[in-house]
Amino acid sequence: MTPLTTTDEGRRLTRIDRRHPAALALLLMLGLILAGTVFAAVAPKTAEASAPAQSADVVEEGRELFVANCATCHGENGLGIKDVGPSLAGVGAASVDFQMETGRMPMAKPGVQAPRVEDVKFSDEQISAIAAYVASLGAGPAIPDEEYTDGSKGDAGKGGEIFRVNCAMCHNSAGAGGALTRGKYAPEVTGVEGKHIYEAMLTGPQSMPVFNDQNLTPEDKRDVIAYIEQQQEAGNPGGNPLGSLGPVPEGLFAWTIGIGLLITAAVWLGKKSA
Amino acid sequence: MSTTARPADALRADDTTRREPASPGLKKVGGVAGWIDDRTGAAKGVGYLMKKVFPDHWSFMLGEIAMYSMIVCMLTGVFLTLWFDPTQGEVVYEGSYVPLQGVEMSRAYASTLDISFDVKGGLLIRQIHHWSALLFIVALSVHMLRVFFTGAFRKPREINWVIGCLLSMLALIEGFAGYSLPDDLLSGTGLRAAQGFMLSAPVIGSYLSYALFGGGFPGEDIIPRLYSLHILLLPGILIALFTAHIVLVAVQKHTQYPGPGRTNDNVVGFPVMPVYAAKAGGFFFIVFGGIALISSLVQINAVWVHGPYMPNATTAGAQPDWYMLFPDGALRLLPGWLEHTTFGFTWAWPVIIGSLLVIPLFYAGMIAYPFIEAWVTGDQREHHLLDRPRNRPVRTGLGVAAFTLWAVLTFASSNDIMAIKFDLSINDITNALRVLTFVGPLIAFWATRRICLSLQRHDRETVLHGRESGMIVRGPDGDFHEVHEPLDPYERWTLVQHEAHEPLQLEADEVDENGVARKGGAKRKLRARLSEFYYGGAVHPVTPAELEAAHHDGHEHEAIESANRADESEVDPVRSVGAERH
């Protein structure tokens, strides 16, 4: 016998009136519970690290660091200052981790966009303290589990397809970056840690859209990281990639060094008169 | 029997032996050449070509660079056809490029990856093919600039100028077809854009697109069709036009720069055999070597990075190859508000102008120019001596203005690249270039014309008063002056040989001898005005009389120099240089 779905069962029950009137409601209830349980089991999981309960000390340390370094723009309570800095309630620890570990925050100077800075001024402990404090302001995405930020566990081929459909139109197919409106830009994604790529997708910093776990599952995000990493590993077999920016630098090269080389040869040959 | 045992058809003792008929005007050619000549009569034509004299100047080799790049492109192209599969059937990639393994893609893209990673030497040949294609069009463009600015397009070479323009335009189309073949994300985006351009054509747009793509976009027909164009039809036309171009150069003889001994009726230089055959043959290998060197060091069109084309994906920094940047730049600059709708039909003017009109208008202007200039200046004579660009201030100015417009549009197409590389706002760049589209060519024309006139005046100054030596001499009365060194007559000739240009005097003919207004008055007025524009206020070359006067106008410093000039004044500057031949 084929298993009956809850709705089939419900309909049959309405036809047979020998059962207790409450049976329908009970079965519906059971069905809903079943559906909920199945969904919970099957639904995409978020890749949040089992956030170790941050001690009040760490949050307090983070608050002090926050007040000293971030409050000028984001406000004393992290709720933002109009036209200066946005509220951080609900941005989550992942956002703080991304912005501060890539050196974007604190911003050195006001501008359309916070640039990536190699020289990070804060230690990992300080950053995680601030992250703990900001996470305490409101629920938000937590720092991802290492399981999902390790590109070597992902499928690069699948990640490449996701990358081309979702990322390449701003970040360029080689991940070399691209321009947005009014001085904003999509930065290059090469040489970025897997964790930061993941956090960027999860939190959508600056102009970037959010790719939440319903949109791109943690496995999908890991595939994207795998693609970016493997593309870099494959390197540039053809020689100098000229910034991986496509036909414009190639044309510039042809018009300067390329034709320059050949004209130099022509001048040299032209001087070789009999 | 008779003692003279001679067959009836044998020679008698006093018969002369029959002479071999020789090709007229040629000495007997031996060996293989003779064998061929005996059967084809080729020696006459070959001899004509071998004795052709070519003047020596590096700028005459720009066309050669273009020719050799084209040959390199064709040689490598043949290699690529052996592995390229121009079909759009889907396959799963199993080649050696790891990040794309297991990805579905068209056969065209997969075979391009195979050429790049699994065919021995394939990547190098692909890069040589692409670099030589870029350099072919760079070289032919620089060659066209040389021809334009030196006036080499004038009678009798207008036809060859037109052929050259057509060659250049076909090269753009040939290049675009090749760029579209690998079916990677970049080329597919280019094809998608091209399809949009077709759709913007009023009335016929959608039919055109459906016909070319064999249905909706992308379909499975476009790559095989472009392949036929790219490897058969367009190269065929290119070679035919190129052959006509070269034959005309040989028939019309090469132009030469003005100089002592070079006249409108001679060509001063070396014959093809042996000098130019050796030089040009060697130069082919230099060009091939140069391109191979670039191709082995610098990566071009990394198709594996872009990934296979999917209509729902694209990449930032999507540009065509450089020669197609200018229409793309026009598209980026044209404001959207130009589009309007009449009776439910959309007139996508920003797209129509940028994509369908810019290229034909550019080439129409170039093709028409020699005829316009001849009409305006009324100059119907043959010209074999080139102009120095400064001696044609308006033509040079117009050329630089057109080049400026082209450059503005080309840069406009890279507005996103400039924005990220120079930390600028793409909106500001676009607005600035919109202004420059109109202002840039005007400034370029004005500045170039002024610079040309200044250089001409400087030439006059140099001829009349010699070259500044930097030596300051104190005179007997305590005054100071700089010693000017006189020019030697050979140098002077180059500065004074050109013609003085005057505007056409057309207003005087407004009425005929009976006082009746002539027909075509408006046209004549336009011509008079253009002629004034070309030659009004022209700086004329120094005449012998002026030179004489300058030498005897009693400047103090010239009196000092008179000792040097004694021997020189006996030499007629015009006559003496005629004797100088290389």
UniProtKB/TrEMBL annotation, chain A:
Pfam families with a match to the protein in the record: Cytochrom_C, Cytochrome_CBB3
Membrane topology: Multi-pass membrane protein
EC top class named in words: translocase
UniProt catalytic activity: a quinol + 2 Fe(III)-[cytochrome c](out) = a quinone + 2 Fe(II)-[cytochrome c](out) + 2 H(+)(out)
InterPro entries: bc1_cytC-su, Cyt_c-like_dom, Cyt_c-like_dom_sf, Cytochrome_c_Oxidase_Subunit
One Gene Ontology term of the molecular function aspect: heme binding
Spans traversing the lipid bilayer: 252-270
Any single GO CC term annotated in Swiss-Prot or TrEMBL for this entry: plasma membrane
Binding site for heme c 2: 167, 170-171
EC numbers, comma separated: 7.1.1.8
Main location: membrane
Binding partners and assembly: The cytochrome bc1 complex is composed of a cytochrome b (QcrB), the Rieske iron-sulfur protein (QcrA) and a diheme cytochrome c (QcrC) subunit.
Official protein name in the record: Cytochrome bc1 complex cytochrome c subunit
Organism: Marihabitans asiaticum
TrEMBL record, chain B:
Compartment(s) where it occurs, according to its Swiss-Prot or TrEMBL record: Cell membrane
UniProt-listed Enzyme Commission number(s): 7.1.1.8
Enzyme's top EC category: translocase
Segments forming a coiled coil: none
Top-level taxon in the UniProt lineage: Bacteria
GO MF, one annotated term: metal ion binding
Required cofactor(s): heme
Disordered, as annotated region: 1-26, 551-582
InterPro entries: Cyt_b/b6_C_sf (IPR036150), Cyt_b/b6_N (IPR005797), Cytb/b6-like_sf (IPR027387), Di-haem_cyt_TM (IPR016174)
Name of the protein in its database record: Cytochrome bc1 complex cytochrome b subunit
Protein's organism: Marihabitans asiaticum
Lineage: Bacteria, Bacillati, Actinomycetota, Actinomycetes, Micrococcales
